[in-house]
Design brief:
By secondary structure, this protein is of the alpha/beta class.
Length: 310
């Protein structure tokens, strides 16, 4: 099995490293437009193999997609971070052009691949990849909810003083400041989190989760990469191994939750065909109101994308 990672920056390189070490496939292809970047990181990872004792083969290429031919999974991490003074329209326009080009090049050589999109703004870029690929939406998945939920779980584990392994949780909605962590669907070894964490502290955890990416940007001066890279690799593993597990991801909705023609965070079953099922959970009035706000923001961004005629 071959997995290609497009974009050899921090997120892409982390994703490739995790895939290699866990031996999710037997060959990884790293692609980047920056000369030497993908080749150098692939060489570094190849030299790590004797230390980490993995047999995964890794190669890097400079904007050449032919080595990606017949990939089973393609992870797209390409795109620019939002810079000071850059408008939402500028960010969408710039990254949509990149994602469109990357997707079309990758699907040309791997028409049967499943695509995992990590570029931001996440939901809009997943939509861009879907429209550009002209393949089933079940095979184009945005990585967001898994990362958001991981942050949510880590903050809860720190508050309670327990292992994050014991926490089950869900986040819904767009990736960003309108995401919706759901305490009603959050538990610790089956015990509702509301019985273990006071409301004011749980509200603070939810707020911190929503702005979790921004917190890291303030500290590092750039976006996170370990958790996003690992999350994308974990999604690839679930698909490659046909594990059919439910995880939150950005998926194309066709009536689910009452929304149409948008990519939106929801619990999905990941297996060999990509998205095997979308789990529609019941929402109370308060949850529905928050999810509607998130959906409307994603819709606005998608309409902006359409107006740009990229």
């Amino acid at each position: 099995m071959k997995i290609s990672v497009i974009g050899a920056g921090n997120v892409g390189a982390t994703c490739a490293a995790v895939i290699a070490e866990k031996e999710i496939c037997n060959r990884i292809v790293l692609v980047d437009v920056v000369e030497g970047l993908a080749e150098g990181k692939a060489l570094d990872l190849a030299q790590t193999a004797p230390l980490a004792r993995y047999t995964t083969k890794i190669i890097g290429t400079n904007n050449d997609y032919e080595p990606t031919k017949d990939s089973s999974i393609v992870v797209i991490t390409s795109g620019l971070p939002r810079k000071p003074g850059m408008s939402r329209e500028d960010l969408i326009s710039t990254n949509a052009k990149i994602v469109k080009s990357v997707t079309q090049n990758a699907v040309k050589y791997s028409p049967n691949a499943i695509f995992i999109v990590v570029a931001n703004p996440l939901d809009v870029m997943a939509y861009t990849a879907f429209m550009s690929s002209k393949i089933s939406p079940k095979k184009v998945i945005g990585m967001a909810g898994m990362l958001d939920t991981a942050r949510y779980k880590s903050f809860i584990a720190n508050e309670i003083g327990c292992s994050s392994k014991d926490i089950m949780a869900i986040t819904l909605g767009g990736h960003g400041d309108t995401m919706v962590p759901l305490p009603r669907y959050t538990s610790v070894s089956g015990v509702p989190v509301t019985q273990l964490v006071a409301k004011d502290k749980l509200d603070a955890i939810i707020e911190r989760t929503i702005y979790g990416g921004g917190e890291i940007v303030k500290l590092l001066g750039t976006s996170a990469w370990y958790a996003p890279g690992y999350a994308a690799a974990k999604m690839a593993a679930l698909i490659a191994k046909d594990q059919r597990r439910y995880e939150p991801a950005s998926t194309y909705l066709q009536g689910e939750f009452g929304y149409n023609d948008i990519y939106f965070g929801a619990p999905v079953m990941l297996g060999k065909n990509g998205i095997e099922n979308i789990l529609e959970i019941e929402l109370n009035d308060e949850e529905r109101a928050l999810v509607d706000v998130s959906a409307n923001k994603v819709k606005d961004s998608i309409e902006l994308l359409k107006s740009l005629n990229i």
